[in-house]
């Protein structure tokens, strides 16, 4: 007779959607790149808060922008808005910062945890592993932080990971491989899930054209990247955001 084996925990009572996006920021001094960071990070949305998130961003990031960007506006990218690149070239920088601030306000109002992993690309080039793909390196760091958050804050929670859908098939493939290196395909009962025991059995890719969660992650990563490079014009937004930053890593040390 087989012994009665109980699962170590009952996952799924608290479901969270983990939206992740990337940002690559650099700063030039005398025509040369003096600092450069690759970030992967995101926002952890409790399922019961999703409806409020979608409603707020549908208004702030679309109704407000659409009135000024016009019919050409289809896809939201925070960096394009801030830089005044088409279709946002009719929106002044001060107004763009006001619009981005509404996204940061949403993080504060809904108490959304933010995590990010940064790779210092200038330091990386001087290491013995300097040829690794920095985006995948940051993604692996982000996965570790997500799992740490669940262990500490929501030990009975379940996370569904949704990444921006990159045009580069090699990047998507690298992310899938990295995810499944740490999140095992479960066999038997109780399941052995590997290092990412709080995450769903596969990761998913979403289109930032439609996904409000990815758009919010995009805003957060832009503000964090600019903070790391000491840009002053968005530092107030970063300081507001920092109150909800739950987990951080930066490599190489």
Overview features:
253 residues; alpha/beta; Nucleotidyltransferase, domain 5; 6-stranded mixed sheet; 8 helices; 6 strands; disordered N terminus
Describe the structure.
The model is unreliable at 1-8 (pLDDT under 50). The chain is of the alpha/beta class. The longest helix has 20 residues, at 50-69. 42% of the residues lie in helices and 22% in strands. The chain has helices at residues 50-69, 78-83, 93-109, 121-124, 134-153, 169-182, 212-228, 235-242, and strands at 14-29, 32-46, 114-120, 157-164, 204-206, 245-251. The chain has a domain at 14-48 and 113-251: 2-Layer Sandwich (Nucleotidyltransferase, domain 5), CATH 3.30.420. It has a 6-stranded mixed beta sheet.
Topology:
Blueprint: E1 14-29, E2 32-46, H1 50-69, H2 78-83, H3 93-109, E3 114-120, H4 121-124, H5 134-153, E4 157-164, H6 169-182, E5 204-206, H7 212-228, H8 235-242, E6 245-251
Parallel strand pairs: 1-4, 3-6, 4-5
Antiparallel strand pairs: 1-2, 2-3
Helix pairs in contact: 1-3, 3-8, 5-6, 7-8
């Amino acid at each position: 007779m087989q012994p009665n084996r109980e699962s170590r925990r009952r996952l799924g009572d608290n479901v969270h959607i983990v939206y992740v996006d990337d940002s690559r920021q650099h700063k030039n001094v005398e025509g040369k790149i003096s600092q450069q960071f690759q970030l992967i990070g995101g926002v952890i949305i409790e399922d019961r808060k999703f409806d409020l998130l979608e409603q707020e961003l549908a208004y702030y990031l679309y109704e407000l922008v659409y009135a000024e960007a016009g019919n050409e506006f289809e896809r939201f990218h925070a960096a394009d808005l801030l830089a005044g690149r088409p279709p946002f070239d009719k929106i002044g920088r001060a107004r763009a910062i006001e619009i981005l601030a509404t996204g940061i306000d949403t993080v504060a109002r809904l108490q959304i945890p933010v995590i990010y992993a940064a790779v210092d690309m200038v330091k990386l080039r001087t290491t013995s592993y300097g040829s690794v793909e920095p985006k995948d390196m940051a993604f692996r760091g982000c996965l570790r932080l997500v799992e740490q958050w669940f262990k500490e804050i929501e030990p009975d929670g379940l996370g569904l990971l949704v990444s921006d859908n990159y045009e580069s098939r090699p990047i998507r493939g690298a992310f899938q491989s990295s995810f499944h290196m740490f999140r095992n395909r479960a066999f038997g009962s109780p399941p052995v899930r590997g290092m990412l025991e709080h995450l769903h059995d596969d990761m998913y890719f979403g289109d930032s054209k439609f996904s409000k969660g990815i758009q919010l992650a995009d805003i957060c990563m832009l503000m964090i990247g600019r903070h790391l490079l000491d840009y002053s014009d968005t530092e107030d937004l970063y300081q507001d955001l920092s109150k909800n930053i739950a987990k951080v890593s930066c490599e190489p040390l």
